[in-house]
Specification:
The protein is mainly α and 47 residues long. It has one domain. α1 crosses α2. The termini are far apart.
């Protein structure tokens, strides 16, 4: 089950995030989720 997490995103990134979401036709939450997953994977690889 997915758990909702509130993230505070700095204002300088919100426009970029919205633009990326619009370009891909997905919601901003999907972009954020993908970024988190990618950073977690990187962290696992680096030990």
């Amino acid at each position: 089950m997915k758990k909702a997490v509130k993230l505070t995103i700095p204002p300088q990134y919100t426009d970029r995030l919205k633009a990326a979401a619009k370009a891909e036709g997905v919601s901003a939450a999907v972009i954020v989720e993908r970024a988190i997953r990618k950073s977690m994977k990187r962290r696992d690889e680096n030990g």
